[in-house]
């Protein structure tokens, strides 16, 4: 598979043909790729790490092999479909501008080693906003339906980011660089993203710092008492917003 306009700015591994998004200096050894079924052991390790699961709402706890397999199977279907859409666009519309995609073909953060092998580090998910801070079910459903009904490329669509990074690589600026690269190199030009809204648990200062470094503006703290699957109870969510300039 060769690199061409509809895959831009993705590059391809010359050995495996796998697409990837490269981070700029000083993170040239970090790439964002599609998921692989072989990522399961690394995901289980991350989801069993209190430095990670303490700040995640969705994953089951304890996190079992079948949970990793199910998650990988689901997201791999999505990235495979995105890659196939781009491949067909290359064949059918080679002279047209790059198409917009709802799903990204890449999302898994990896560290490339000196010998060419790579290490699973984490995940970046881009989806239409789910408004987890809204308690009013009727209002939430109305807002969700309105956001979902907007056509891809509509600048009024509100998107959201979900992410995690192996604790062995916390504090190195990797997540900030990865999200920044993803936003400006893929989400904005290839998904039409113009508005992003994220929620972090109020006690997750590290995550909030990442988004503030990226230009997200603190909007509000929502008092919301919720017990996570891990058994931990949270008392609030910070909401931060970003708009393309």
What does this structure look like?
This is N-acetyltransferase domain-containing protein. GO terms for molecular function: acyltransferase activity, transferring groups other than amino-acyl groups. InterPro entries: Acyl_CoA_acyltransferase, GNAT_dom. Residues 30-217 form the N-acetyltransferase domain. It comes from Ganoderma sinense ZZ0214-1. There is one protein chain. The protein is α+β, with helices and mostly antiparallel strands. It has one domain: 3-Layer(aba) Sandwich (Aminopeptidase), CATH 3.40.630. 33% of the residues lie in helices and 26% in strands. It contains 6 helices and 9 strands. It has helices at residues 40-47, 50-53, 65-92, 137-149, 174-191, 205-213; strands at residues 11-12, 19-22, 30-33, 108-112, 118-128, 158-165, 195-201, 217-227, 233-243. The chain has a 9-stranded mixed beta sheet, with helices on both faces. Strand 6, helix 5 and strand 7 (195-201) form a beta-alpha-beta unit. Helix 1 (40-47) packs across helix 3. The longest helix has 28 residues, at 65-92. It is globular and about 50 Å long. It starts with 10 loop residues before the first strand and ends with a strand. 29% of the residues are buried.
Please write out the topology.
Layout: E1 11-12, E2 19-22, E3 30-33, H1 40-47, H2 50-53, H3 65-92, E4 108-112, E5 118-128, H4 137-149, E6 158-165, H5 174-191, E7 195-201, H6 205-213, E8 217-227, E9 233-243
Parallel strand pairs: 6-7
Antiparallel strand pairs: 1-2, 2-3, 3-4, 4-5, 5-6, 7-9, 8-9
InterPro entries: Acyl_CoA_acyltransferase (IPR016181), GNAT_dom (IPR000182)
GO molecular function: acyltransferase activity, transferring groups other than amino-acyl groups
Pfam families: Acetyltransf_3 (PF13302)
């Amino acid at each position: 598979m060769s690199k061409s306009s509809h895959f831009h700015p993705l590059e391809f591994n010359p050995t495996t043909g796998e697409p990837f998004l490269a981070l700029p200096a000083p993170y040239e050894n970090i790439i964002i790729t599609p998921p692989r079924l072989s990522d399961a052991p690394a995901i289980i390790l991350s989801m069993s790490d209190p430095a990670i699961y303490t700040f995640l709402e969705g994953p089951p706890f304890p996190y079992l092999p079948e949970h990793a397999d199910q998650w990988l199977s689901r997201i791999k279907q999505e990235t495979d479909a995105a890659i196939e859409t781009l491949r067909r666009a290359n064949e059918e519309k080679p002279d047209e501008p790059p198409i917009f995609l709802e799903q990204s073909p890449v999302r898994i953060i990896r560290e490339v080693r000196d010998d060419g092998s790579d290490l699973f580090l984490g995940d970046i998910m881009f989806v239409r906003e789910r408004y987890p801070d809204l308690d009013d079910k009727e209002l939430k459903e109305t807002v969700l339906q309105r956001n979902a009904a907007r056509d891809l490329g509509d600048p009024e669509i509100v998107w959201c980011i979900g992410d995690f990074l192996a604790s062995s690589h916390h504090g190195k600026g990797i997540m900030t660089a990865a999200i920044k690269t993803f936003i400006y190199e893929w989400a904005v030009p290839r998904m039409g993203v113009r508005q992003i809204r994220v929620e972090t648990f109020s006690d997750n200062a590290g995550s909030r710092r990442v988004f503030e470094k990226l230009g997200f503006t603190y909007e509000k703290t929502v008092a919301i008492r919720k017990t996570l699957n891990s058994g931990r109870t949270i008392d609030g969510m910070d909401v931060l917003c970003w708009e393309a300039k």
